[in-house]
Amino acid sequence: MRGDDMVQFELSDDTPVYVISVAAQLSGLHPQTLRAYDRLGLVCPGRSAGRGRRYSLRDILALREVQRLSQEEGVNLNGIKRILELESQEQRSRMLLAELHTEVNQLRAELESTRAVAARLAGLLRSSRNARAALVPVRRSDTQVTAPPPGPEAPPAGDQASAAALGNNANLRETNDG
């Protein structure tokens, strides 16, 4: 078989590859102890298609930690289980915190970008108003807008659409400023 024909895959620390006898040797424990730890939920290995236990490198390290806590520290198995649960929970919390920090940083960058765009648009709007005023003078001397007096009085019939378009029901009156 040539190198090009070989199937490439990566093994991580969580890939269950070691059968129980190899895991027992690597951890320095008896296979029956590994089975007991599995039943107690201390170290739960993966399973093969035939339901055989397969231990990962991370499982081996956990088995060694269980042995250390039991033999050297004198912690009982229930205490060890709680310690392992808390360590796992802490690890998940740290990962979540790192993800949230990344998300906050992305949102800050987006906010800065949005603020920069808004500032540019505001500047363009200001300059466009100034340029429009200088290029095309608008003369409003022929139309005067006044508010209607209080009461149910309606605007003149011809100017109803114009007054409604202003939104205030204002009356438009033609003036002769000519």
Molecular structure report:
It is built from 5 helices and 4 strands, in the order ααββααβαβ. The protein is mainly alpha-helical. The protein folds into 3 domains: 20-75, Multidrug-efflux Transporter Regulator, Chain: A, Domain 2 (Orthogonal Bundle), CATH 1.10.1660; 91-138; 143-172, no CATH class. The strands form 2 sheets. A two-stranded antiparallel ribbon has the order 1-2. The chain has a two-stranded antiparallel ribbon with strand order 3-4. Strand 1 and strand 2 form a beta hairpin. Helix 1 packs across helix 3. The termini are far apart.
Topology:
Layout: H1 20-27, H2 31-40, E1 46-47, E2 53-54, H3 57-71, H4 77-135, E3 143-146, H5 160-166, E4 171-174
Antiparallel strand pairs: 1-2, 3-4
Helix content: 55-70%
- Write down the overall mean pLDDT: 81
According to DSSP, the number of beta strands is 4
Please give the alpha-carbon distance between the first and last residues.
99 Å
Architecture of the largest domain, CATH level 2?
A: Orthogonal Bundle
Name of the CATH first level of the largest domain:
Mainly Alpha
Strand content: 5-15%
* Oligomeric description of these chains: single chain
Q: Sheet with the most strands?
A: 2 strands, antiparallel
Outline: elongated
Structural class: mainly alpha
Query: Reading side by side through the largest sheet, how are the strands ordered?
Result: 1-2
- Secondary-structure element string: HHEEHHEHE
User: In the CATH scheme, what's the topology name of the largest domain?
Assistant: Multidrug-efflux Transporter Regulator, Chain: A, Domain 2
Rg from Cα = 39 Å
